[in-house]
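Dear H.,

Thanks for agreeing to be a second pair of eyes. The structure we're designing against is below in token form, covering all 193 positions.
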């Protein structure tokens, strides 16, 4: 089961590119469908949102707090990003979010800073979504689609995290996932992915 999950994740990573920059289009049809697809099409978004889901399963009864913080901050920052527009080197910030979230998993941090880190990461990813829309181009339907796509990725991460929690080597799987995220973040920083 775990090998299948890892194979599926590897497939997503292998076929994805960092598309969180302005000016890309998916051509999936309507605004909601395009919004749902967007988080799934960039390796940076895909991994960050799955990581938040995995992290949520390590939070006990407050497991929904991290995905909720990420989605809310992402939605608000999307609107801010649309108003401000593109900024240079945004992809570097998105790569750093993978490193930050990965470090939280590697350290299995239950520190009070984790919700703040998740909120900042959600804000940065949201800003990237909004900055790519351009003034007046986005509809609330598209934003709703992005939030739905993000929620789906959080649920995928929660499924993976729940599977990790059922194994004898839970901490090894969680730390390994964090390490892989850090490696991808570093590779994106270096421009090799």
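And this is the sequence the design step returned. I haven't edited it by hand at all.
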């Amino acid at each position: 089961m775990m090998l299948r999950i890892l194979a599926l994740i590897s497939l997503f990573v292998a076929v994805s590119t960092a598309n969180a920059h302005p000016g890309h289009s998916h051509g999936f049809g309507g605004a909601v469908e395009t919004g749902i697809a967007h988080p799934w099409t960039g390796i940076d978004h895909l991994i960050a949102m799955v990581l938040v889901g995995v992290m949520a399963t390590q939070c006990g009864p407050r497991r929904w707090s991290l995905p909720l913080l990420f989605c809310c901050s992402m939605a608000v920052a999307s609107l801010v990003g649309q108003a401000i527009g593109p900024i240079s080197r945004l992809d570097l910030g998105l790569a750093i979010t993978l490193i930050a979230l990965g470090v939280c998993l590697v350290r299995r941090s239950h520190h009070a800073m984790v919700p703040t880190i998740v909120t900042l990461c959600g804000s940065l990813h949201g800003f990237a979504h909004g900055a790519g829309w351009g003034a007046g181009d986005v509809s609330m339907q598209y934003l709703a689609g992005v939030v739905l796509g993000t929620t789906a990725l959080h649920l995928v991460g929660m499924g993976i995290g729940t599977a990790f929690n059922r194994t004898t080597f839970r901490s090894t799987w969680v730390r390994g996932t964090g390490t892989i995220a850090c490696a991808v973040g570093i590779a994106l920083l270096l421009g090799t992915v």
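Two observations from my side: Residues 31-190 form one domain. The chain has one domain: 31-190.

Warmly,
E.
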